[in-house]
Structure formats: structure tokens, C-alpha cells
Predict the structure.
Amino acid sequence: MNHVFIHTPVLLAEVLAVLRPRDGARYFDGTCGGAGHSAAIMEASGPTGFLSACDQDPAAIRAATERLAPFAGRSELRQMNFAEAASWVAPGSCAGALLDLGVSSPQLDVAERGFSFQNDGPLDMRMASDRGATAADVVNGWGEEELGRLFWENGERDARRIVRAIGRERAMRRFETTGQLAACVERTCPRAGRKAHPATKVFQAVRIAVNGEVEALHKGLAGVTGMLAPGGVLAVITFHSGEDRIVKDFMRSEARDYDLPPGEPDLPHLRIPRPPRATLITRRPILPTDAETSANPRARSAQLRAMARL
Ligand SMILES: C[S@@+](CC[C@H](N)C(=O)[O-])C[C@H]1O[C@@H](n2cnc3c(N)ncnc32)[C@H](O)[C@@H]1O
């Protein structure tokens, strides 16, 4: 089924302020979605700016193709995971790159995509909707210990109780729908006193696992940084603390003037000197204004960090 793709780009003015698109330069958008940010980058980069953009969701690529039609001669789009994009975009070729992580509004709002505990749909959650394991495969197929660790690592303090309840229920019938999973979590951890829906963290954790988001982010940050020319800017928008920590640690380590042996703590005598590879543009993340979050509540957890390659 085709749905209209409506997604309001978050922190748009702030992204443009750090990327400062200019004429004749090339930009990369690794999460183009409906191309809200991409189109703004194209408009700001003058008549000869060039954009390479990807998204792993075929519905996003269809929407972005339409949105970027006015820039067809100077933009290229691919359905691709940004973790693989270094094999597409030449090293050192870009003046700026953007990763706007997480899900788009249409992914959340279209029940059949299976991301939402508010709209009942099949337990799917794949951004790359044409390939890979679904949320049902994770919820029905993972061992209880593995599932418990996934929920706990994503901040769900009732992970154990929830996993036991899932175990009891799936012994009787498979989990097939988002409503079934949300109801199981809600029965186990009733709403009382919680601000968010009790299934928020469980849904987020399953989505992260289904889409391999942690692995993609680690690989993507390194790959996308390699696409930048000297002075080129990497801007990353995150939506939860786990994601933000990965981006913060990556940017700080690029800006340091030393390496550490793998797995070692940061102790002065372990440091291996090397020149810094980047400078931080944001020491602390840039957050949306109150005006933005009241106009677009989905912006409320957004955080923008940026660095410039040396
Ligand atoms: C928050 S939306 C981006 C919205 C976009 N900036 C706009 O203005 O419309 C996030 C998008 O990133 C995509 N995405 C998330 N992780 C990805 C990955 N590893 N590779 C490619 N696309 C990814 C999702 O499919 C989704 O369309």
C-alpha cells in the first residue's frame, strides 16, 4: 500500500548552521527519509551543489526521489544502509554529511510497518522493509536471557519480569502483532506512575536489534567521516541516550591527539600519541527550541552533535 510520506525535519536551521552548505560542494545524507534535510541542503548549496543520499527504506527512497526531483541533475539516491555507503561515495569528496538517526514519522504512523505500540499492526519494524529478520523473529525466536539483556541494555528496568511474561505467552501462541506485545508488557508493568507508555523501551530495544542499529552506527560513523574532505563537517542527530553516547565518544576520540590500545581505559601512560583527526563544533549537543518541540513533539528527544575533519 502507498502512503503519503510526511516527516518534519528536526533541528533544520541548526543543521544548516553547522553544515553551512556552499555552492559547488558535495554533501552526503545517509538517512534521507522524505528528503526534508536533503532538499534544504540542496537549496542552500546554490546552483552547483551536489548531493548523494541514501536510506535503507524503499518507501523513503520513493518519497525522496519525488522531493528531490527539482535537483535531479545534481543529486543521486540509493536504497542502502549508510554503514555501506563508504563503498559508494568517494573518500575525501564531501564538504558535509548528515546522519539523522532513528525512525521517520511514516515508519511510526503506518500500522503495517509494525513499529508502533499505538497502532496495531504486524510485528515487523524493519526499516529495510524488503529484507532481513522481523520483530516477530526476535520476540519469538531469541532466548529469554538474550531478550532480557537486550531490554536491560536499552534501559528497561523491568526487563526480567517482562521477558518471563513474554516466555509464558509465547509458550501458548506466537507473538504476531504490535498490539499483542504492547498488551503483554502493559499487563506486566501497568501504567501507574509512568510518564511514557510501559512498552516504549521494549519497542525501542526490539527495533534497534531488528535493524542492527548499534553496529550500523559504529561502522557508519567511521565510513562517513572518511568521505569528508579536510574541513568537511559531520552532523549527527540522535534520539536516545545510547545513540548519543556512541556519537559523543566517536567525535571525542576523533578530536583527541592520542589512541588507546583496544579495550584499555583512558590512562595517561597508555596513550599512544597521534595528531587529532577532527575538531568538535559542538562541545555539548544542540537541542531543539521550545518552539520546535511544541510544533513537533517528535523533536523533543533530538540532540545534534557536529565535528569538522582536519
Ligand atoms: C529521522 S528519519 C530521517 C528524516 C529525514 N532527515 C527527513 O528530513 O525527512 C530517519 C531515516 O533514517 C533511515 N535509516 C535509519 N538507519 C539507517 C541506516 N543504517 N542506513 C540507512 N538509512 C537508515 C530510516 O529508514 C529513516 O527513513
Notes: The first strand starts at residue 26 and ends at 29. The radius of gyration is 20 Å. The mean pLDDT is 95.
